[in-house]
């Protein structure tokens, strides 16, 4: 009978632990990347609890014990955050972070750059990337990524129409104020003139855009069937000005045409740019850090590392994340490779807690606790009766 007290007590303690696990799950229903857990129960028994009719020994139950909690690794609900640095994983991969000198793994993709321009998660752990040698490194926006160096113009692409009407005198055209940028990031302008030579040919003259500017180069562009003829699609000139190092520029005529309409020319693009400073940063769907600058340019930085494990048992919880069990294998790679999964930018994985399931478990734990309490109460009453019988004898 006294054993019944111990059995009931084991039920109380075990279901109290179960209530704690359920309560922890419910408390983290809004924690990004949280993985719910379930407490595993195990039967306790002793050998030789009685003799079976055939002469064998019977096992007698002695209550319940709790085993390890099982982490449920199913994916949580995906949530939109609007933060271009947040990421969610669609697949088996996990983000790799470094806390002090320990590597941890998580599905929570809330990221930001700290005061030292190092990418960290909400807990302050440093997010890891793979370098060219496959080594894990911190993601940091160093000096090279904080600014965009100027680039001299090398190609100017022209577009539009040149009048091809045969007329006397010939119809000429001009295009003034084309921007060119030198190696120091300083903008200059050049002017173009197209002199109709008839027969679809034009003499192109490039002059400096300043008043009374010098001629910088001449060339010929020829059209066949309304489009630039082979061998006449480009021309080169050197930009030379006082105090400016000479640099070569190519005019690209491929997007031009001729027709009977009035001339209407424009500069489609030029590939130079002035210096710029970092204005924004994001992480794309490949896990690459993309930096944007005030001059409209972009640059790519490190690429996030994703980790993959053979089984869920290779991980154990630690401080809001997971650590690798001793001796467990782990592989590192990038989003889109093999089974690591793909990334969604501007989104995060929420908690995978199922409220309906957890409230059902809550009721079960409560019923188990109440039943164990009744067992103890009943056993206590029976013992009390026994003592009363002995006292009245």
Sum up the overall morphology in one term. rod-shaped
Stretches with pLDDT under 50, minimum 5 residues? none
Strand content: over 45%
Computed Rg? 38 Å
| Fraction in helix | 10-25%
- Could you describe the largest sheet, including whether it forms a barrel? 6 strands, antiparallel
Describe this structure in words.
By secondary structure, this protein is α+β, with helices and mostly antiparallel strands. The protein folds into 3 domains: 2-73 and 352-392, no CATH class; 78-148 and 278-349, no CATH class; 155-270, Tick-borne Encephalitis virus Glycoprotein, domain 1. It is built from 3 helices and 29 strands. The protein has helices at residues 2-27, 143-146, 355-392; strands at 37-51, 57-71, 78-80, 87-90, 94-99, 102-106, 111-113, 119-121, 126-130, 136-138, 147-148, 155-163, 173-181, 187-196, 201-208, 215-224, 227-228, 234-241, 244-259, 264-270, 276-283, 288-293, 298-303, 306-309, 315-318, 321-324, 330-333, 342-345, 347-349. The strands form 9 sheets. Strands 5, 6, 9, 10, 24 and 27 form a 6-stranded antiparallel β-sheet that branches. Helix 1 runs antiparallel to helix 3 (355-392). The model has no long low-confidence stretch (mean pLDDT 89). It is found in: Bacterial flagellum basal body. Residues 89-143 form the Flagellar hook protein FlgE/F/G-like D1 domain. This is Flagellar hook protein FlgE. Its main location: other.
């Amino acid at each position: 009978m006294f054993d019944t007290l111990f059995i009931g007590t084991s039920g109380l303690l075990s279901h109290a632990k179960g209530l704690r696990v359920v309560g922890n799950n419910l408390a983290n229903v809004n924690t990004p990347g949280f993985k719910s857990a379930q407490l595993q129960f195990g039967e306790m028994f002793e050998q030789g609890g009685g003799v079976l009719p055939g002469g064998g020994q019977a096992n007698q139950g002695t209550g319940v014990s709790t085993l390890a909690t099982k982490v449920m690794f199913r994916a949580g609900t995906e949530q939109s955050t609007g933060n271009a640095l947040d990421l969610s994983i669609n697949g088996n991969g996990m983000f790799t972070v470094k806390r002090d000198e320990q590597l941890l793994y998580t599905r929570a993709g809330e990221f930001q750059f700290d005061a030292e321009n190092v990418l960290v998660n909400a807990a302050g752990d440093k997010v890891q990337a793979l370098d060219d040698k496959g080594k894990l490194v911190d993601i940091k926006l160093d000096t090279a990524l904080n600014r965009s160096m100027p680039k001299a113009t090398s190609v100017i692409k022209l577009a539009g129409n040149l009048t091809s009407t045969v007329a006397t005198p010939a119809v000429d055209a001009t295009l003034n104020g084309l921007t060119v940028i030198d190696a120091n990031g300083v903008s200059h302008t050049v002017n173009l003139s197209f002199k109709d030579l008839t027969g679809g040919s034009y003499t192109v003259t490039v002059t400096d855009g300043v008043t009374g500017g010098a001629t910088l180069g001449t060339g010929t562009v020829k059209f066949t069937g309304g489009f630039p003829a082979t061998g006449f699609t480009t021309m080169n000139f050197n930009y030379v000005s006082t105090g400016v190092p000479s640099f070569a520029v190519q005019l690209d005529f491929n997007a031009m045409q001729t027709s009977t309409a009035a001339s209407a020319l424009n500069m489609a693009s030029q590939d130079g740019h002035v210096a710029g400073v970092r204005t924004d940063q994001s992480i794309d769907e490949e896990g690459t850090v993309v930096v944007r600058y005030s001059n409209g340019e972009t640059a790519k930085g490190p690429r996030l590392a994703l980790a993959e494990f053979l089984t869920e048992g290779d991980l154990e919880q630690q401080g809001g994340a997971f650590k690798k069990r001793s001796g467990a294998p782990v592989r590192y790679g990038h989003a889109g490779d093999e089974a690591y999964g793909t990334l969604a930018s501007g989104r995060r994985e929420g908690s995978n807690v199922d409220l309906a399931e957890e409230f059902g478990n809550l009721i079960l734990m409560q019923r188990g606790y109440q039943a164990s309490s009744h067992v103890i109460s009943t056993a206590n009453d029976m013992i009390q009766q026994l003592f009363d019988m002995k006292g009245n004898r």
